[in-house]
Amino acid sequence: MEKVCIVLSTFNGEKYLKEQIDSLLIQTGVDVTILVRDDGSKDNTVLILKEYAEKNGNISLLEKDFGVNFGVAKSFIFLLTTAAQMFPKTSYFFFADQDDVWLPDKCSRAVTHLPNYQNKAALYFSRKKLVDATLKPLGRKDYIRLTHTFWDYFDRSNAFGCTMCVTRPLVDALQDDRFYELQFLHDNYIYRLCLSANIPIFYDDAETILYRQHGDNVEGAVKKPNVFRGVKRLFSLRKKPHIIRLTSSYLLKNRSDILDKDNRMILELVMASYKSFKSKFKLILLYNKQQNRTLKEKLLRSLTFLINYN
To answer: Are 34 and 4 in contact (CB under 8 A)?
Structure first.
């Protein structure tokens, strides 16, 4: 069976943690190792983790900086890069949140979707089944909008960490990456890095986890967009960081060595467009040439380029 490693970062997760760990332990068709670190919990989370680790030989607690509050992105990347060093024979790595429930074939589906990629950088992600705190289905489908082009970079990321699988070469590419210092979420950053560098992304339309919506999620499920909500969101971002521009700046400064040439040109236009109308119109023209974008999408994205809400 294929060896896989699940990295789990916890923070005050006692309420749902046992259900989640139980679901990780019954993954089928793969040989699972779970590496866990706590990010500074004040409840009984650590006691639960120690209890599970004592009873299950495939669960390891990462002792280095255990209980130190890194924040979610740094905690997960610290786990991920350490796991790659600790388990050199493992090719596939997964992020697990503390409050979901994984379906038994989640890991094996990911491995199946990544044939012959043990030695190549690649990303897999899937759809989520939306449920409430008691795991009751919410009656709406997880919204995924993909065109499978670089221009997905400008949309809100569909790739949630809890559905991701990354191959070892992609983990290796993240070893010295310090994107978390700019408060980027690890899943958003990895997704946009892959788009920018033309690293293969495999999407699985199956629902592989029960994704709890309970009010305390770091990031909730995406709702199907409409023009009214999109415009409203633009103005709600007035005092917030412009994540696309910040990510573009970071990639150009720190990961230029692996960026695709054409995609790098678009990112450079993004940065120039903040002060250049010529660059704005170039971006708008390029975006509007995309045949797999709707008129509503083109109008809304053109507006974001014009008013620097990227």
So the answer is: no
| Cβ contact 260:149 at 8 Å | no
The bridge status of strand 30-38 relative to strand 2-10 is parallel
Name which of 80, 254, 258, 87 is nearest 171 in CA terms: 80
Q: Which residues contact 210 (CB under 8 A, 6 or more apart)?
A: 100, 101, 102, 103, 128, 129, 131, 135
- Closest residue by Cα to residue 202 from 232, 170, 244: 170
pLDDT for 61-83, tens place per residue?
A: 999 999 999 999 999 999 999 99
Q: 3-class secondary structure for 205-225?
A: EEEEEEEECCCCCCCCCCCCC
pLDDT tens, 269-307? 999 999 999 999 999 999 999 999 999 999 999 999 998
Average pLDDT over residues 84-107: 97
Alpha-carbon distances of 155 from 195, 241, 310, rounded to whole Å: 12, 16, 10
Check pLDDT > 70 for residue 235: no
Please identify which residue in the block is written with the tokens 């970062």: 9
CB-CB contact of 44 with 15 (8 Å):
no
Angle at 123 between CA 224 and CA 305, to 5 degrees: 50
Does residue 128 contact residue 159 with C-beta atoms inside 8 Å?
no
